[in-house]
Structures are given as C-alpha cells and as structure tokens.
Amino acid sequence: MKFRTFAAFVGPSLLMMFLFIALPLGSVFLQSFQLTQQKFETVEVETCTPGFPNATCVTEAKTQPIFGDDGKPLTETTWVGLQSYHNVLEMERVRDALSNANFSQWMTIDFWKALRFTLTFTLITLPLVLGMGLLIALVINQASKSVRGPVIFVSLLPMIITPVIGALSIRWLFIGDGILTSMLEQWLDRDIAMFAQAWTIELMMMLYRVWHVAPFAAIIFYAGLQTVNQDTLESAVIDGASTWERLRYVIVPHLMPLIMFVTLIHLMDSYRVFEEIVGFSSQAHVISLQWLTYDFLTPDDAGNRSISRASASAMLTMIGIVILLIPVLRRTWRDHKGS
Amino acid sequence: MSSRALRPSFGLRLSSQAFLVIWCVIAAFPIFWIAVMSFKIPVDAFADSPWQVIVGPETRDRGMGLSLLDIIAGIALIVFSLRFATGRLGKLVVAWSPPGRTWLGWIIGVLASAILFLVAFFGVLPAIMGPLNAVTGPLGRDIIGLTTEHYETVWLERGFLNNFKNSLIVTSGVVLVSLTVGTLAGYGLARSGSTLAFWILIIALIFRALPHSVLVAGYLPFFINSAEFLSPILGENAPTLYGKPMATIAVLVAINQPFTIWMLRSFFHNIPSELDEAARVDGCSHFEAFRRVIMPVMWPGVITTGLFSFLLGYNDFLVTSLLLDAQNQTMVPAIVGMFNRETTTTDQVVAVAAAVSITAPLLILVLFFQRQIVSGLTAGAVKG
Q1: What's the CA gap between A328 and A51, in Å, rounded?
Q2: Partners of residue A67 on adjacent β-strands
Q3: What is the pTM of this model?
C-alpha cells in the first residue's frame, strides 16, 4: 500500500487520537508545573459610622478579585515548578511518619493511601481473576453442548453491566442489614457492619472486581481450550498423567499467551480502579489513584477545581503505567524485530 | 470430549457441574436481586429474610400484587415474544424488506415489535387480567407483592427520561463516529505491513492504558475556557465546549479509538487480502476496492466492534460526569447523584429502580448479540 493511501485511511483516526489524547497529555504535563489563580488586589477601604461628636472612621485593607473589562474575574498563570507535586506528595509529612516508624500515620496522606490501595487491589485481584477464569472455562468446556449457550449468557452478565451499577448492586446486598450481611450475622452470630471499616470495604471491592472480570478471562480461556491438541492430551493419559498433571503440563502451557494477554489487560484496568470507589461511596475510608485525580477535578464548595494538583497527581499516576508497560513493549519490539 | 480415555471421572464431573451451578448463581444473583428489590415497597425491599423480599407481603397487603393467573399469562407472553423475536421476526424481515435494504427492515422490525410488546405487556395484559382475576376466585387472588411505583417516580418525576435521551445521543454518536473513523484506520493498518503501522499500533496500546482522569485533567481547563481560545478562529459564536454532548462524544471516540483499531485490524486480517488484490487488478483504486469488495463482507466485525463502543459510551461515568453539565447529564452520573442524595428508604428503592432501568437494555443486548460479543472478545485476544 502506498504511503499516501495509508495516510488517507489512517489519518482521521490519528487526528482524533492526536487532538484528544496526545495534546491533553502534553497540556497536563505543562499544567502540572503551573498554577492558575484569580488575580486579587489589596485596596484600602475607609468605613465610617456616624457618631458624636465625630464620626468614627476605620481604614482597613481588603483583598478583592480584579474583574476584567468583560466582567469576568481575571486570572493569572504562574510557573511554580514542582510545587504541585510537592502538595500532592507531602514529603515532609512522609518523612515525619517514617522517622516515627509509624505506618498508619503515613497512610493518612491521601496520595500514599491511594497508591497503597491501588497496588494491593491490582496485585490481589490478578491471581484470583486468572484462577476463577480458568476454572470457569474448564467447567464450561466439560459441560454438555446444550447448556453451554445459556451458561455463557449468564456469565456475560457481570462483564457487560455498567461498572458503577455492578458495584452498587453488590453494595445493596451488604449495606445496613442487607440480605447477605444478615446471613453472615446469623452464621457468625455477631453484629457486622460491612461499611464501617476500610478492610471490609476493600474486601467487597475485590470481590466485585473478580466477579466483574472473571467472565472476560473465562471466555478467552474457553476459546483457547477449543484449540488444545487432543492427541497430546490422549498421549498424556496413556503415559499415566493425572487430571491435575494434564492441566499443569499440557493445558496451561498451551494457554500461556492468553494468560499473558489477560494479565496485561487486567493490570491496565485494575490500576485504573475508580468506579468501585463511586459505587461503594468509600471515599472516607478507601481511595484510589484515579479517584484522587477525579476528586481534584470536581469543583469544591467554592466552585474551584484544583487543576494543577490534578495534573500533578495524573502525572504521578502515569509513572505507574509506564513501569507496567515497559516489559510488554520490550517483548513486542523483540517479536517485531524477530519477524 | 471425543475420546473415551479423556472422559473425566464421575467425582470430577459431579464437582464440576456443582461448580457450574454455583458460578451461575453468583453471576446472576446481584442483578436478579436488585430487579426483585425494585418492585417492592421499602419495608419489603430491605427486609431481613430473603423470602419476604421475594414474596413481598407488605406490598401485597397494599393491594399491589400479582395472582397466579397474572404470572402465568405474563410468562407466556414473554416466552411467546422471545420465540417470535428469535425465530419468526427474522423471516418476516427478510420477506418484507426491499432487497439490499435488509438493515432498514431490521431496524423497523425490531422497533415495531418492541413497541407492540410494551403495549401488550403494560396496556392490554392488565386490562384483560383485571376482570379475569375478579371472577376466578382463589386463582385470581394476589400471591406476590409487586409495584411499579418506583419506576414511575424515576421516569416521570425525577426526569430520568431526559437523562435517557442524553445517554442515547452520546452513545449513538460515539458508536457512529468511532466505527466510521476506526474502520478506515483498521483496514489501513491491516493491509500495511510497514514499521509505521507497527508503531501506530504500539502507541495506541500505550494510549489504551492511560487512566481516563489523566486525559480529562487535560480537557477541562480548555473546554471551560474554549470560547476565548476559539474566538480568533470562529469569531463571535465560538462555543464553550464544556457541557456540550458533541465535545463529550469526540472525547469518548478518541479514548475508544485504540481499542477499536486493534479489534478491527484483527477482523480485517481475517478477510483474505486476495479479495482486494483481485479488485485492484481489475482496475479499482484502494478506496474503490474497500467500498465495493471489503465493505459488503466486513459487517460481522464492524457490528461486534460497535457493540463494544456502545458499552464504552453507555457505561462511562468518569468522562460524562466531569464534562457534561446538569442539563445534558447521562444516566449513569445521574443515578450516582440520585443515591448520594438519598435520605429515605423510598429514595433508595427509587435509586434501585433507576439502576435496573439502566441494566435492562444491556440484558437485551447480550440476549441478541451473545455470539458477536464472544467472537469479539476472542478475536482481540487470539490475534492481538
């Protein structure tokens, strides 16, 4: 294909990605070193109250926003260097906490709290998703043909449901004396409040994420299982391999590329964990990196959005993504050069 | 299993079947449960015992309920409609629509049957069952409490209809634009083996991994002040992009683009390139070859990719909640606002009803497009 034709086909898509992904990325990078604030001026105002024999007059300095010709408040943008990063990371509080060797004090700082949760969430859900996915795929593969269709239909439901709604539906099962909480209470014979402390909320979030993603892994593994070489399996049986050994030495190596694929997608997606925080309204106990940026971007009570802090936390979030992607990119590059 | 030697032992088969049943219950239960809750008054919906939630005695005592006859008639109507939709409807569409315009026939057919079903289910059925219940004695007595009042509150009083309309605009915009742009790019990338194409795909993969809040942090300041930025080019009527559905559509399309081009590329890979080469030999340019030879055979892949674009636009919370103003709000952010504000238990059940309303279209989607969704997932994985 000639370059010009190629450019004509790919052009619109590249333009979209450039305008709405690459450019914003660049501007976030710049914004994280800038601070945009309203301009204020200090004026001296003399207020007098009538009195006898003389009026009492007070002169005081007042700060007030400057308005432009169009009646809008003027803003000015200044370069502040690493100030926003500093505000997000709060290094001196970290140093303080570390010198006291106090972990829970360290975890009161928003950014580190979010980082801690995001990483544990990602690393704990990953093996669970892979294991559940493989198990479901194997079981569907064993089932008779007539049940497979309906079972796949039911399995798809947790995957396609709106994430916020999915999290909400789990929340409604547990909230207050929700149906599952009261069952747990009967079973353990004690009072349980699932939304009162951080670790139960985190547990429910991981539960939800596994429920939400396992079907995706299962369907991909199920497709892979269709291409397992039946002859190899049969010779494994003749050689006396047990079911477990066949799974370990024939099926899993065959599925390895798919397992890598699901791992990659899951790492990308669970690193961006966000909807769970909204669905469980857990911001008082548990927050994630993406939620932190979201929170900076939503207007506060005075109607201001802290854009520069959001940009700083967004750039810090990006570092994690880069670390995550480096091994993948190196492998793809090697494959590409090899072929 | 083809061979006897590979038949699992009895114990293994039993435990795998048991696991299958447990998994299906786990997968469907939360969705089933919010659907049940949404039809009950709060006392029943938040009751301790599961039985009370399902049967809803308090709801029934308020005179809102279903008799055995109602249930049988309702199930019969649903089964009949499903049979019709999956069997007869297809034949009717093919027979009645003008040749070459089958897709138009499908749209009209599906819309007509959906409207017909809604009229029959909510209009005709209650009208018939009312008098029938009165004369059949014990069969006609209410056994299950059920009320649709929360749905009425959501859709009529809380203005959910407006949110639904906005969701419809944003979602259909996202699907249309991202398919048009993505199909061209996917075809170009699949047919070009150059290093440039490889790098474009790798960069797309990196973009796929970006958290959406990072991007929104880039849009917000520009969108809010866009009237000033754009006025040198567009003059007086430069728009403020913040709050405009069109701007949000463009953003969602761009975010969705990496995934779309990866998926469509793998579909185009499966279409033999001999097809367009033959057309080129016959004197077509690349674009003509694409239009005359590739377009007629690409629809399965495009429909599948469209389904995933639909899910992205429909399910999005982060981008729409930050970039749209209250007036143009879509359904998902609206419900989050609703349940954050909720104070009484009635409000909570209303929020549940809204959640079920959002989920229902997705259920129908899976029902009809299960095969496409599965093939889309596996195509991306095996080839990507």
Answers
A1: 80
A2: A73
A3: 0.83
- B369, part of any domain: no
Which of 339-368 (B) contact A at CB < 8 A? 339-340, 351-352, 355, 358-359, 362-363, 365-367
B170 domain-assigned: yes
Correct CATH for A120-287 of 1.10.3720.10, 1.20.1640.10, 3.20.20.140, 2.40.50.320: 1.10.3720.10
Same domain, B73 and B119: yes
pLDDT tens column, B364-373: 888 888 887 8
Residues B137 and B220 in one domain: no
CA of A58: how far to CAs of A45, A61, A63, A175, B158, in Å?
8, 10, 16, 57, 52
Work out how many CB contacts closer than 8 A connect A with B: 290
Domain shared by B226 and B252, yes or no: yes
Give the domain-ending residue among B92, B112, B145. Answer: B145
What is the complex's ipTM, to 2 decimals?
A: 0.82
Residue in chain A nearest B376 by alpha carbon: A220
Domain count, chain B: 2
Q: Which residues of B touch A268 (CB under 8 A)?
A: 208-209
Segments forming the whole domain that contains residue B323:
158-341
Are B223 and B331 in the same domain?
A: yes
**B185 with A9: Cβ contact below 8 A:** yes
Q: What is the mean pLDDT of chain B?
A: 80
Same domain, B244 and B291: yes
Within 10 angstroms of residue B228's Cβ, the number of other Cβ atoms is 13
* A86, amino acid identity: H
Whether residues B209 and B131 fall in one domain: no
Contact flag A294-B322 (C-beta cutoff 8 Å): yes
What are the tens digits of pLDDT across the range B327-366?
Answer: 778 888 888 777 766 567 777 788 888 888 888 888 888 8
A64 has which bridge partners? A41
Q: How confident is the model at residue A132 (pLDDT cuts 50, 70, 90)?
A: very high
CA dihedral A199, A202, A204, A208 (to 10 degrees): -170
Q: How many C-beta neighbours within 10 Å does residue A46 have?
A: 8
As a whole number of angstroms, the distance between CA A12 and CA A24 comes to 18
CB of B22 less than 8 A from some CB of A: no
Using a CB-CB distance cutoff of 8 angstroms, which residues of chain B are in contact with residue A20? 215, 219, 250-251, 253-255
CB contacts of B363 in chain A (<8 Å) are 157
